[in-house]
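Example record for the data management plan.
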Amino acid sequence: MELLEMKSAKITKKGQIAIPKSVRKLEGFSEGSKVAILAFKDRVELKPMKQISRIALTALASEKTLAKDWDTKEEDDAWKNL
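Corresponding structural encoding:
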């Protein structure tokens, strides 16, 4: 993927940053749009939510959230003979 621009930003006490105006002009980063925050060991990426496919949304769900629905006796019984 081609790097279009590199800017710096300062993280506030509340963990906030301002996205530079030139970056906000990119598709999917307008005011009010939702972004996915992808955290890796060595970097953080922001992606417009509309670029995240339904399949990838599962990866964004936390283990705790999934466990609430999937870590049940009924689920265990359903999978035990497969």
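Summary line stored alongside the record: The chain has a mean pLDDT of 83.
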